[in-house]
Write a structure and sequence with these properties.
The chain is α/β, with parallel strands linked by helices. The protein has eleven helices and twelve strands. The strands form two sheets. A six-stranded mixed sheet has the order 1-2-3-4-5-6, with helices on both faces. A six-stranded mixed sheet has the order 7-8-9-10-11-12. The radius of gyration is 22 Å and the shape is elongated. The model has no long low-confidence stretch (mean pLDDT about 95).
């Protein structure tokens, strides 16, 4: 009978991949080895949470891939990705609709990546890759971008006027070329500490997160502050888009608040950020 705690081992492009059914099997397997284990890619069909990351770290991996388990409450299904990131280790999670929980072989053969951490993104990993494509990218660096943009700036749409909708993760990453020209979809809160950025960069419009709105509506207070400057601004609900991810603001966000300047352009609560950004642009 096969030892279910023993990984399936693949040699891939000069590196070794350990495929486990469970993160709980990693520690016992490592303890049973006659020589130290380190530098492998670990693929485990457990949730990519912090507890599982601690277990997988017993193998001292160069990278790790788990399951997203539908992300879950408080993002617990993928919280281990940032545990790995703090240690400088690329991490990714597979969509649990594409691979069976507790079945490492199915995850290896059929898994599709849904989330990656910053370290993995620097190596060219991205959602939509298969597990094996992601492993190849990790081991070979073949998809590593020539230059990694830590601001993750992305031009979504350019109008005939030359104005554009641009995603970036923080208003602090705005560029001089955005002044009086671009609608910025960013992912910090819309509180008073960002007012100086808006006034310095003067985007044509902006959409940020409401940060959960918070005490005394502090998460959206900047909207009113920049109304006097004639800058159209809106916030998306932090329950609809990931803070720190400007592309999520644009693609996932739903407007929870806007200022009068934005409202005059047709922006209103309940719209998608995509609708609101186009209205601001025009």
């Amino acid at each position: 009978m096969a030892d279910l705690h023993h990984p399936e081992i693949h040699s891939r492009h000069g590196g070794r991949v350990l495929v486990f059914d469970s993160a709980t099997h990693v520690q016992s397997w490592v303890a049973a080895q006659s020589a130290p284990v380190a530098g492998d890619v670990v693929v485990a069909a457990s949730y990519a949470g912090v507890l599982c990351a601690r277990m997988i770290m017993s193998a001292k991996p160069q990278a790790a891939i788990g399951l997203d388990c539908a992300i879950g409450k408080d993002g617990a299904g993928i919280a281990g990705l940032w545990f790995y990131e703090a240690l400088g280790i690329p991490g990714a999670a597979v969509d649990t609709q594409t691979a069976e929980m507790g079945n490492g072989l199915d995850m290896w053969n059929n898994g599709v990546i849904s989330r990656v951490n910053d370290c993995a993104q620097k190596l060219g990993l991205e959602p939509g890759m298969t597990t094996q494509e992601a492993v190849d990218a990790l081991l070979t660096g073949s998809r590593r971008p020539a230059q990694f943009d830590s601001a993750r700036r992305r031009v979504i749409h350019t109008a005939v006027t030359g104005r554009a909708i641009v995603c970036t993760d923080s208003i602090a990453f705005a560029l001089p070329e955005d002044r009086e020209r671009n609608v910025l979809c960013t992912a910090g809160h819309t509180g008073r500490s960002v007012v100086d950025y808006f006034r310095q960069f003067r985007p044509w419009g902006f959409i940020c997160s409401d940060g959960g709105i918070g005490k005394n509506d502090s998460g959206i207070s900047a909207l009113g502050d920049v109304d006097a400057d004639g800058i159209a601004g809106a916030s998306v609900s932090a329950l609809t888009a990931r803070m720190g991810d400007g592309q999520s603001t644009y693609f996932d966000g739903v407007i929870s608040a806007c200022n009068r300047t934005a409202a005059a352009k047709g922006v209103k609560v309940g719209q998608t950020a995509r609708e609101a950004a186009l209205l601001m642009l025009d």
